[in-house]
Every structure is written in structure tokens, then in C-alpha cells.
User: Fold this.
Amino acid sequence: MNRICLDLAEFTDKASLDSRISEIISEGGECEVTIKNISDSPDWAKLSADRLRESSHIRTETELSIDTMKRSDFWYDLPEELIAQTPAEPRNSSRLLCVDRKSGELSHDRFYNLCSKLKKGDLLVMNDSRVLPARLYGEKEGTGSFIEFLLLEQKGDKVWEILVRPGKKAKPGTRFSFGNGRLKAEILETVEGGNRIARFECEGNFFTALEDVGQMPLPPYITEKLADNERYQTVYSNELGSAAAPTAGLHFTKEMLDELHQKGINTAFVTLHVGLGTFRPVKEDDVKVHKMHSEHYHLPAETARLINRTKAEGGRVIAVGTTSCRTLESVASFNGGEIKEAEGYTDIFIYPGYEFKVLDGLITNFHLPESTLIMLVSAFMGYDNTMNAYRTAVKEKYRFFSFGDAMCIL
Assistant:
């Protein structure tokens, strides 16, 4: 195989770079091209380099330096019509892009055929967190003016940190009513960043009242109303506490879980309560400067036992979703590579250059351009493999984001 190094820093104009790329493509035959200095290159150079990645006889390897890696390296063009507004029906009818982690080879399937991609002795690790109906629409007591609450984090018994809109109406001491008085709240204080601390009042159990009057906090890119709140929950959700669904798990049906077990494919659960920060964009161009939101996790003793047994017996540990991945890698990172029962908070940020300690495979949805999640996927299966998979998914009109299609990376 012919091996070529293409240093983008050597080209000062588009014409000369395009000419060199055309020469490489026209040579024919199997070729491996190492692309250097892409992070510091202008946009025209990055677009020109994409021609190499789109050539079937050329394998590219982009050298990403941790010191120069930029947010813009993880951009891809996504037509708005590919953002899924409603979940697939049935759940497991969504499309599945299968990716060979090492070679980058792609194949197309449906999620209901996932079992055929797995082997006896494999272990799927799933996040069993359940989404809170954390969005509340109500009125200010005394005036009846509109108010919107979004619950972020529980601070005590019926005491929560919240986002409020419009904020000017939510001064300390102000009271609000939701669901014709089924749930009431008083603002206690304003905290850093403009969030509020509120104490709620209700008859009976708070979470029962919340289920009665709350709505699902769908991501901002979903504009259609959800007909059934359970479609934004996984079928195995159990531990209430997330502000967003662990969406890779939305594709599983109870029948699929039974099929997995019948074929000797095991399942285990972790809990990571997804925070609203999962939608927070990376604003800094220097990836390393970005600060991750902190989220609460729990890895039970039984899950640790199953992971360690799977590894010992030569099976593969496959995370269902980036939240499961972050939980496993956090526990291993905090314990010198060891997996054991653990609970705490993590703000782990995984991007290219990270060395995985647990994962052998990943099932995940398609993520936003320049997001921390596409960076995590790039760290797991390589930058070029990731960007090529995303370009192919766009070309083949896969559905993207929370209610979209899935990838299986093995």
C-alpha cells in the first residue's frame, strides 16, 4: 500500500492544495494518507481534505494534536430536515449504522437485528435513569401571570434548584401554583448563574404530584409535542432523576431484551442522572478549556461483578449510550483501572487522546456537531472513522439526535 503524508501547513492557497489532492486521487490503487496540521488550517483546507476521505480507495488518518485540537474539527453539515422530531414506531425499527471500530468499514441495518451483531458472553451496560417530567407551566399567585419552571437538581426535601422563565417574576418570597394548585412553590433565593432555589408544597408524594402536572423536558431542537411521555423513557428506566433521556436506550423493546438473554448476551445497569448541561454547547475553540457539567452516578456491586467476569472470560463490555460509557470510564479512572461498586459525581470529558479502560463497544445515537459527545465517539473509534460515518449517515438520510437512528461500534 502506498503511504503519503499531506501536511496542510505547507499549502498557502486552495488551488495548490486541490492540485495535490487531485494527483493523489488520480494515482489509483490502495493508498493511506496521513493528514497533518488540520486543526490550525483554514476552512478551505479542511474542505479540500474531505475529498480524500470521500475516495473509496484512500484510507485517511488525521493526526489530531491534543495541544492544537479545536472545536471546529468536529463540525459536520447537517440538514435540518434530518433532525428527528418524533420517535420511531415501533422503537426498534430505527436504522442502525454498524461501524468496525478499527477499519471504519460501514454496513447498514435495523436496530431489531442488533442481536445478530453480538456474541454469546457479551455484556451490554445500560443506564436505568428515568427522566423527570421536570418542566412545569403555572401561574404567579395573586396575578395569574405565566411562569415556567425547569427542575435541575434536588437540594433537599421538596427543595430544588430550578431554571425560571421569565426570571424577573421569580424574586425570593414569590409564590407560584401549578396544575390548579396540585403543586405549589415558593422562591427561597437566587443563586450564581441566575438559577433559583424553590421549596415545593403538595399533598402526598412530591414525585407523584410531579408526574401529574409536569411535562417532559425535551431537547430544544425538538419542536413537536410528545404524544406519549413514555416514548422519552427507556423500557428499563427505573431510577428517577434525569433532565434528559439516555437516548441510545430508547431503541430497545422488552422483547429485544428477552432475545438478548436467550442468546446468552448479558445485561447490566448503571445509573447516571443526565443533567441539563448535556445540551450545553462547547463555546471555547480550544477543546481543553471546556468545563463539563457534573452528574451523579452509581455503579452497583452486581454490575461490577458482571463486568469483571465478562472481561475474565474474554467477552466484550459494550456501553449502551455515552452516559453508560462515561460512568464506566469514570469508575475505572477513579480506581486505577479497577471496576468496583462506586457512587459519586463525575465531570469526565472524553476526547481524542483518551485511553479507554473498560469499553470494547458502544451503541449510541448521532450527536450534534462540535458537541462533547461526538468528541467522545471520535476518541473511541478514531477521528476519521467518526467523521466518515457521520458524512455517510447524512448522505444516506439517517435520522439524527435524541429520537433519531443509532450506531453500533464494535
The chain has three domains: 2-63, 80-131+226-409, 135-213.
